[in-house]
Amino acid sequence: MKKLTVFSLLAALATAPLMAQSLQQIADQLSVPTRVEGSTLQIPSVPGAEVRFLGADYEQIILPDGHILKPLTDTRVKVSFVVNRDGEQAISRDYDVVVPGMVTPAAGANARPLVFPELLNWVGGEGVYQLGETIRIACDIKELSSILETELTELLGRRVEIVPTDAPADLRLVISSNVQLGDEGYTLDICSKNGITISANTQTGLFWGSRSVWQMLSQGKGGIPCGHALDIPRYKVRGFLLDVGRLPIPLSYLKDVVKYMAWYKMNDLHIHLNDNFIFLEDYVKAKKDPLTEAYSAFRLESDVVGANGQPLTATDLHYTKKEFSDFIAYARSYGVNIIPEFDTPAHALAFTKVRPDLIYKSHNLRGAEMLDATNPETRKFVESVFDEYLLPRNGEKPVFDGCSVMHVGADEFHGDAEHYRSYAAWILGMVQSKGYTPRIWGSLNEKKGKTPVPGKGAQMNLWNGTWAKAWDSIEQGFDVINTTDGALYIVPFAPYYRMDFRQGGIYAHWRVNEIAGTVVPSGHPQMLGAAFGIWNDMIDLRYVGYGSYDIWHMFSSSVDVLAGKLWGCDVPDVGYDAHVKRLPQIGTVPGINPQFLWKDGAVYVCTPSALPCKIAQPSMGPNYTLTMELMLKNAPTDGEEQVLLKSPEGVLCAVLKDGTIGFRRSDSMEFSFNCKLPVGEKVTLQLIGKPGNTQLLLNGKPAGQCTLTRFHRNPEGIINTFVLPLDELGSSFKGTIYRLEVKHTAPAGPTPDPNRK
């Protein structure tokens, strides 16, 4: 009798959780098999409740309807469910399941090759396919063929030939119709007899496949292990944001960013095109007018000019409409989507300078940067700017043709919540009405109110857990992107927001689907992915002189950290130190040289017979020593520059407009050494360039202190990196250059940062 009582009690306890547990607890304790069999995912059952499938992180393997497409080998997939009961709903945690593969790898076959991000599935074959001195590529997509031909020639130093698709080839690229590959997946077939075949549904998928093949070839020096691979991305948005609104950044640099991202299959480049000095209170407290004195920029060519004569277009550096349109197409050929951003109603000093009549009435010390979100004229003005780029004009395609997503900004508005919400709802709808998907900065938890802001069909960067919470944003209908500031922001040379100081921790512990402490199932259909960003807050009064060269390492050392998690799994197979050590094995990104490196110990000597002299050498980055023997024959004329060296990367001047020796970089920043060349005297000028520091010597002795001629002239703490231009010598120099010698050694590392302890 006692045993029966115990058994009866146990039976009662077995059903008790349905009554005692919360619906969320039930959703997180579903009976989900760890290995799924059959062609359809079995939905767990809960008495008295309805359970439905929510999604999988690899939705190409377990489709949104639960149908299963077998991968090549056993693959771990995360799945989640929705549980409904009595009008209440709960979304489950991620459940790990293994989907059986079609093939079991054979013992002794070729091991999985080192590719980063890692291949999802690999079945090793036997032997190696070795490329000959002439490499034949069969591809009928002209644009892609051209890229691959150029890259492979650089990568292996061999002749590359594009052949017809029906001809024998070493590398064959084939457009398929494999549902499992989606828009970005691909397969590899590498056979010792038939060569290498990349198959994909799209040009982008083929291109991603070539990244993996190139990395294998770099390690094998033209040989590649035989085998088969299936590779598909885990998240749709694998992104990086670059603030060019505050820091002038040349378009050539953005192209290098695209190629570097593409090497790691990162596909979303968000360009923050307008902004201003963020600390406008520095001006207000000093009783200065930020509207007239603070730095701001709108980085695109625009037809807009204010009644006050103020152009919207930045006067220091901007991209023409054609340049930017061509850049969008260029990025697409490398699999990268450009997301342009115009930031309003805050961060909009470039707009308020043009239309000061539209400034929001506020007591906030940063109020000069805010457009009046309540004024219908503001909306007309802002829409006219968007239309200049979103709509076709004069029978031509839109400037942003090829962009499907337009970022509308809308962050950190320090005004009334209802005013903000009304503006946000309007600008999202306005962009949607023009055929683009809008993306916005999350702000609706900070700006609570009654005015509805529909999120369906829009995307949101979740950048701060106070401004916008993950689940609230999802329930409002937004597709979300993890851009959490504390983890994923870099503010160069600032003491805050330094993801670049913490890559090891991010690599080991950060998860794509954990947003400001909130975990969203990785397969949630509204969980798009993640992006990290570089914000150039330290401009204007706080500018320390850095340029695009100085932030390259911050960008490049962070891309791979996120790329592996966004394309593949959260948990890396090796520790961070081991990961960093093995990255060089996959080779360097072909087609870029952002640090303008020459071979170590390289020397170039020129003894010109006449000036100007075209020397046509590539620009040289630190570390270098330039030695010139020269004589300035004519005294400087007021305001007339005399250029010693120039190239697209900048100019070195014997005489700046103020008569001093100095240089100007391609980002428009100018530096003076505050000393002058003697007239009629032969001197030896030396320029010693290091990351973060450029020093001038005259006749072997240090000459002057290098100062920034813009914003302030204090030399203390100034970063003055200069890439040495070596295209043309003496283009406007009034004198004689007897001899030029340049020596180059490998760079000492990234630009020193006093904030790094």
Describe the structure.
By secondary structure, this protein is an alpha/beta fold. The chain folds into 4 domains: 22-99, no CATH class; 121-231, Chitobiase, domain 2 (2-Layer Sandwich); 237-586, TIM Barrel (Alpha-Beta Barrel); 603-744, Jelly Rolls (Sandwich), CATH 2.60.120. Helix content is 23%, strand content 26%. The protein has an 8-stranded parallel barrel with strand order 12-13-16-17-18-19-20-24. Helix 11 links the parallel strand 17 (405-409) and strand 18. The longest helix has 20 residues, at 548-567. The N and C termini lie far apart (72 Å). The relative contact order is 0.08.
Topology:
Elements: H1 2-20, H2 23-27, E1 50-56, E2 75-85, E3 88-91, E4 95-99, E5 121-130, E6 134-138, H3 142-156, E7 159-163, E8 171-175, E9 186-191, E10 195-200, H4 203-220, E11 223-231, E12 237-243, H5 251-263, E13 268-272, E14 274-276, H6 281-285, H7 290-293, E15 296-298, H8 321-333, E16 337-344, H9 349-354, H10 376-390, E17 405-409, H11 417-433, E18 437-441, E19 459-462, H12 470-475, E20 479-482, H13 485-488, E21 489-490, H14 503-509, E22 514-515, E23 518-519, E24 527-534, H15 548-567, H16 576-582, E25 603-606, E26 613-614, E27 624-632, E28 642-647, E29 650-655, E30 662-665, E31 670-672, E32 682-690, E33 693-698, E34 701-702, E35 707-708, E36 728-729, E37 735-744
Parallel strand pairs: 6-7, 6-8, 8-10, 12-13, 12-24, 13-16, 16-17, 17-18, 18-19, 19-20, 20-24, 21-24
Antiparallel strand pairs: 1-2, 2-3, 2-4, 5-11, 9-10, 9-11, 14-15, 22-23, 25-37, 26-36, 27-32, 27-37, 28-29, 28-36, 29-30, 30-31, 31-35, 32-33, 33-34
